[in-house]
Amino acid sequence: MGRRVRVTTEPLVIGRSPKCEIQVDQESVSRNHCRIRFEGGEFLVRDLGSTNGTYVNDDLVHDEGRLRHGDQLKVGRTILKFIVGDNVEVEYHEEIYRLMTTDGLTQLHNKRYFDEMLDREVARAKRYKRSFSLLVFDIDLFKNVNDRFGHLAGDAILRQLGAVLLGRLRVNDVLARIGGEEFALITPEVGLDGAKELAAKINRLIGDTRFEFEGARVKVTVSIGVAEWQTQYEDPSDVLKAADDKMYEAKRNGRNQVCA
Length: 260
Fold this sequence. Notes:
Elements: E1 12-15, E2 22-23, E3 34-39, E4 42-47, E5 54-56, E6 59-60, E7 64-67, E8 72-75, E9 78-81, H1 88-101, H2 111-128, E10 132-139, H3 142-149, H4 151-165, E11 174-177, E12 182-188, H5 192-208, E13 211-213, E14 216-218, E15 222-228, H6 236-252, E16 258-259
Parallel strand pairs: 1-2, 15-16
Antiparallel strand pairs: 1-3, 3-4, 4-7, 5-6, 5-8, 8-9, 10-12, 10-15, 11-12, 13-14
Helix pairs in contact: 3-4
């Protein structure tokens, strides 16, 4: 994170080979993965027959695709942000700050930001005697998705799940990816009944959504655990464990359900 590469009008190749202008030393990246070039006033990216494909904003580059300001270029399992303009330096530092608190794959908040917000919410609950609830959920049988379709498919499902949930929550809610396929949602000033209702909506929404990878449908469900902050709790780990325990109870009871 934080490496910046200047893109000029000269072509450059991204790949695992040390001869590439941008070397990404990961197994998911081909030796010569893709090429970026400048033509007709715009930047273009071409896949060079890579094993795992080149993606722009989750769309597979079949021949050659355009790169615009703000686009995300996915090479193997690495995501690069394409920035163009007069304020590249400012935007670069803003992007570094965003990366520190954002999960690069799903664009949700990351575990670091989640921990900070949970600490803050616990402090508010203790000081002002206000409650809040926590939802913890993960994708059922996610290993089967990776085993059947490959890890790139698993990544695609995680991104799609994040996109499905974003925009359907309150401004004050904090949604984060806290593990491989595990997510958490902090709901300030929401009691257990309201949190259970929200969890049921999320469960139905994900179950009804058509998830796909390269044209193939992937059935996705989640198990959700819900817990409300209690006065006897001492620190954030207590409410997190309570919600986590309920999530595993939902899995033991058959998955694709809510336990609170």
